[in-house]
Write a structure and sequence with these properties.
- The protein is mainly alpha-helical and 101 residues long.
- The protein has 4 helices and no strands.
- Keywords: Membrane, Transmembrane, Transmembrane helix.
Length: 101
């Protein structure tokens, strides 16, 4: 559910051309990719079905491309922002899959 909400927020920011769009897209992308990565390595069992995981990984790859390129003239994401989005995405993923079980 958190991955879908992150995608919804990132899409809203993208629609409004908000300055936090690239950060929100990167957070979603890291969370979606880490969900499939952690699930495939056996760290936890993901509740996301396989077909939804494939769709979310595709959306995450597009989100990475949008957030790290200068596509919508919103400025590129900084290294601090990229690292922060990685940390936040990892925290969200681990919180909802390890600490709530």
């Amino acid at each position: 559910m958190a991955i879908s909400i992150e995608l919804l927020i990132a899409g809203y920011y993208l629609f409004k051309k908000h300055l936090k769009t690239n950060f929100a897209l990167a957070v979603f992308a890291f969370t979606a990719l880490l969900d499939s990565l952690f699930s495939s390595t056996g760290l936890f069992t993901s509740l996301v079905p396989l077909n939804a995981t494939i769709i979310l990984v595709g959306c995450a790859l597009v989100s990475f491309w949008l957030s790290f390129s200068h596509t919508f003239a919103l400025g590129r994401i900084s290294m601090v922002g990229a690292f922060g989005s990685f940390i936040l995405g990892t925290t969200v993923e681990l919180f909802f899959n390890l600490w709530t079980v």
